[in-house]
Amino acid sequence: MRRQRLSLVILAMIITPALMVGGTVSGKVTYTGTPAKSKAIDMSKEPSCAKQHATPVTTETVVTGANNVLENVVVYISAGADDASAPAQAVTFTQKGCQYIPHVLAMHVGQELDVVNADQTSHNIHPLAKTNREWNKSQPPGAPPIKDKFDVPEFISVKCNIHPWMHGWFAVLKTNHYSISGDNGGFTLPNLPPGKYTVTAWHEDYGTKTQDIAISGNETKTVDFTFTAKPY
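RE: above sequence
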């Protein structure tokens, strides 16, 4: 009986670490100041896209919400995480209504990218890479996804050579620990083993901010970022 109890204790000691998912970093991204107003986009030259939008579409360079929250900020572990392997699952960048969905797409170095054309018109996707290989490819309606990968970390501006208002970003990272702030400004980075980390927040117009943290176990650390809006 004693031997059985001892075996159960040892088994629990083995199983418990496996069940531990690690710590979590969560927080909110906000701004101070007065951001520039989004500009209305005229899609009248592409009626098949214009009719998909019940209300006018505006630029997404700066997207804000209630209580000064800031959307489309890439928050990621820039130091301390061992993420050498890219996920096997591809990430998808969709062209729909002559917009890029999502506006900012994050991926791991070497992870497969699928570019989908869900419109009734042709697109020409053009990632303006400076460190990675720059390319531009035409994609007619109904064509299969364009598949590609990026070899080194870089924030890459993306445009369409046919529709000049189409603009997005690829965030090519060396980590799988990333999140993009949503309409409430929130982000979550789960499953962090104990250790010291640098958390970086990147916005396409407002730049980059970093904070250093330490995770000691199954805890949740709150890390908030505040950007200064650019004047008009």
